[in-house]
Amino acid sequence: MGQNKPPMLGRVLIWLLVGILIAYALQGVFGVGQQDVTQISYTTFREHVTAGSVRRVTVKGEQIRGELKTEAMRVGAENDTTRYKSFITYLPSFGDDELMSALRAQGVEIETRPADDSSWWPMLLTAILPLLLIVGLGYLFITRMSSQGRNIMGVGKSKAKLYDRSQEETTFDEVAGAEGAKQELREVVEFLKEPARFEAVGGAVPKGVLLVGPPGTGKTLLARAVAGEAEVPFFSITGSDFMEMFVGVGASRVRDLFKQAKESAPAIIFIDELDSIGRHRGAGLGGGHDEREQTLNQLLSELDGFEPTQNVIVMAATNRPDILDPALLRPGRFDRRIAVNLPTARQRAAILRIHAKDKPLAKDVDLERLAKATPGLSGADLANLLNEAALNAARNDREAIENADIEEARDRILMGRERTGLVLTDEEIDLLAYHEAGHAVVAAALPHADPIHKVTIVPRGRAMGVTQQLPEKERYIYEREYMLDRLAVMMGGRAAEQLVFDTSTSGAENDLKQATQLARRMVLDWGMSEKLGPMAAGGERRQVFLGEEIAHQKNYSEATARQVDEEVKAIVDGAYARAKETIETHRDILDQVAELLKEREEIDGAEVTELLDSAGD
Ligand code: ADP
Ligand code: MG
Ligand code: ZN
């Protein structure tokens, strides 16, 4: 930003005003334009006339100006002398009957003017000056406003910045980690470059791509890299830009932005910080959010209003997907979500290498080790860390960044982080690693469980760690055995905590909730309980708000309800027992997986399976 046009017109106006004011003042006070005019007494004037030394006079009302044939001298009060040729004097109020004949006798040229004809331009000025002042000040106000990025003239215009390739030099190479996101975004770029190739194979590329991830993970950076890589116009705007200052402009800005983009298609629109407009409608308190709702509605209708074939792709970024209006996420809008996660140790090392490229590092600096010592830090934190380290080095008059500078910076940043609760102690990491390893080992060992895709102790969303399972095939029918194994996997985390540390943590909350829910459905809806037998006690499920909430209609007796609860508990307990048994059998594998997790923070499911298989041989 900040490339405001110099307010040329404004400056010209100011100088004009100042000039006019000065001229006006001079005219009034000193009577400029009548230089060398000396005021003389009427007597002196009459003497000049009698002496025949006056060449001409101009009479205007009482005022007589005149010019002498030769210079005369006037002696002032303090004996100072003034030589003059032009003079001014005033007719006595009682008049001078003889003056006319005297002048005529001397052959003086006489000019006369109407008494009230003061010269025309001061008159004009008094009329025009206030007007000029108002216009000038108004203009100043406007330019001042627009230099702060608020242009009164163009309020409704979108403030989207248009990047062109020559300006944006960020490329995907500057984004470390985030491989998945980069891959998907590359596809988007390719589509815009060669839509024909995708259309030929009937590939539909999404209209809306939403980058989702915690702050500082490089979402904006990725978008800039897309701009740098794509050879198409790239319109970028921040959500809050839609909202600022003038009521009623957000919606028209959206309209304008999409219009511009369509005109220059193929093109990319990027809306950063989408949550500032895309918040759940009606969620605001006090009803003061009409502005945002209008803007959001406009955005929704623009998203619906163009076809994928128009070659406009809308990208957006947010770190609060949870508060987005669900309407934004419906198919045909932002239907492709790309997760940008906090980096793992290996990815942190890569990010550090990128940001250390143009910084001189002393020999004792080990970026790999630093990466391992900075769990939970985002890309932005890491970039910041190296900058701080560089500042420390400069402060200490060093030519290169030494390990001590880095340690100091790291401590400061981690300390700031601890307050926000994102940095785990070693014990917490231990617990977390065993918890996830528990899920993973149970999943790998039980025959009916879905294979593991990834195990990670890098926080994802609200979860501190995740064991991701991917079903081998799409499932429509779930067997009891599958359900039971699944339940055991859910309990694996808690079981490992108990077995290894003889404690339980709050980290299992979600596991327990999910397991209880699943067990309940097994009993109530699927008739999978041995005691209750094949009956669906759950009754009708009714959709309340568009599938968001499901209300239960109880149509069973209190006695049955008690039985249901007992059955649910039995199933969950059984699952826990199986999980515990499984990890006891494979305790060595559990330890190995936990170790791997602590070291690398993320491992592939296949590694767990291999460990288990090789142990079984
Ligand atoms: P977000 O938009 O997700 O909050 P940004 O894209 O603004 O994060 O990231 C801020 C800065 O942090 C970037 O300009 C970059 O210097 C650094 N950064 C973040 N993630 C990465 C990454 N994956 N690789 C390299 N640098 C990164
Ligand atoms: Mg950002
Ligand atoms: Zn868990």
UniProtKB/TrEMBL annotation:
E.C. numbers: 3.4.24.-
Required cofactor names: Zn(2+)
CC terms in the record's Gene Ontology section: plasma membrane
EC top class named in words: hydrolase
SMART domains cross-referenced by the UniProt entry: AAA
A Pfam family per the record: AAA
Location in the cell: Cell membrane; Membrane
Membrane protein topology class: Multi-pass membrane protein
Keyword annotations of the record: ATP-binding, Cell membrane, Hydrolase, Membrane, Metal-binding, Metalloprotease, Nucleotide-binding, Protease, Transmembrane, Transmembrane helix, Zinc
Transmembrane domains' residue ranges: 12-32, 120-142
Sequence ranges assigned to domain AAA+ ATPase in this UniProt record: 205-344
CDD domains per the UniProt record, alphabetical: RecA-like_FtsH
Highest taxon in the source lineage: Bacteria
NCBIfam families: FtsH_fam (TIGR01241)
Function: Acts as a processive, ATP-dependent zinc metallopeptidase for both cytoplasmic and membrane proteins. Plays a role in the quality control of integral membrane proteins.
Assembly, per entry: Homohexamer.
Name listed for the protein in its UniProt record: ATP-dependent zinc metalloprotease FtsH
Organism: Candidatus Kutchimonas denitrificans
Species classification: Bacteria, Pseudomonadati, Gemmatimonadota, Gemmatimonadia, Candidatus Palauibacterales
